[in-house]
Amino acid sequence: MKVSEQHRSVVFITGASGGFGLLTSLAFAESGYFVLASMRDLAKKETLLEKARKQGVEANIECVCLDVTKQDDIDSEIPDIIEHFGNIDVLVNNAGYAAGGFTEELPLEEWRQQFETNFFGLIAVTKAVLPYMRKHQRGTIINLSSISGKMALPGLAPYSASKYALEGFSEALRLEMLPYGVHVVLVEPGSYQTDIWSKGMDHFNSYPESPYRDKNESLLKIVNHIAKTADNPEEVARLIVKVAQEENPDLRYPIGKNVRTMTRLKKLLPWRWIERVILKKISPRK
Ligand SMILES: NC(=O)c1ccc[n+]([C@@H]2O[C@H](COP(=O)([O-])OP(=O)(O)OC[C@H]3O[C@@H](n4cnc5c(N)ncnc54)[C@H](OP(=O)(O)O)[C@@H]3O)[C@@H](O)[C@H]2O)c1
Fold this sequence. Notes:
Elements: E1 10-13, H1 19-30, E2 34-39, H2 45-54, E3 61-65, H3 71-85, E4 90-93, H4 108-136, E5 139-144, H5 157-177, E6 182-189, H6 213-229, H7 234-245, E7 252-255, H8 259-268, H9 271-282
Parallel strand pairs: 1-2, 1-4, 2-3, 4-5, 5-6, 6-7
Helix pairs in contact: 1-7, 3-4, 4-5
Bound molecules: NADP nicotinamide-adenine-dinucleotide phosphate (NAP).
């Protein structure tokens, strides 16, 4: 660890090798935080460090090796960091991916892996940090949920289920920790241009004989279209920093095109109408 200042706010981010995690690391560093940018493959750190150098904030970032599904990584890194810095002021639980495919065709192992990363891994990291935040009576935990945690789509059932689980977990944890001055927050983005759309989507392609073939192809087209046209992820990084700076943050921060409208419509419209619209959207064009 190269930082000797003990009093600078320290933020720990999971999944900082790309996407929101990388941009959020840079945004915190620019705002004067000391950033522990964790990633499961340290060979990827150069992308982040190169950008940090260009922005003149390299001294505010330290890369740490941590796979959220590996308890050994968590057990060795978090206590070390706490010993050096005294506390983690902000934890950003960002690491995650989306497993695409229809339930019948997705091996159970794929489901388990989705939850290991997006849900149990996040809980494991959180549990490692909680005792220190509680003791210091301060801290903010920002969990990256998704519009998929408010509204589920066909072909993304494991992802949606993991984000719905995260929503429930975060509501409960917030109530557990508020009396100790620790704030738990959900950031709920819509669709943003990151690598999430190109990872975890292999099942849409893997079965030429699939009874879902047309739908798989149609969903893959939609995913590819989103990957090209989605919003700029920097706005999510900026929001995360803003939330971390709030003294009394809300529980939920939806962000992105149509996210608020979609959640409102879900509350207002009969569910059968919504089903019809979604099924029409994914049905292959003749
Ligand atoms: N992009 C969107 O439209 C969107 C919308 C709503 C919510 N989100 C959420 O935002 C978060 C970040 O996603 P992103 O869009 O930035 O995707 P991304 O560009 O694919 O980045 C995901 C990050 O998570 C890391 N990761 C995956 N599994 C991990 C593990 N077991 N341990 C540690 N790190 C791991 C990846 O590392 P590797 O490089 O090693 O794979 C990568 O750094 C996710 O939780 C996602 O669900 C994204």
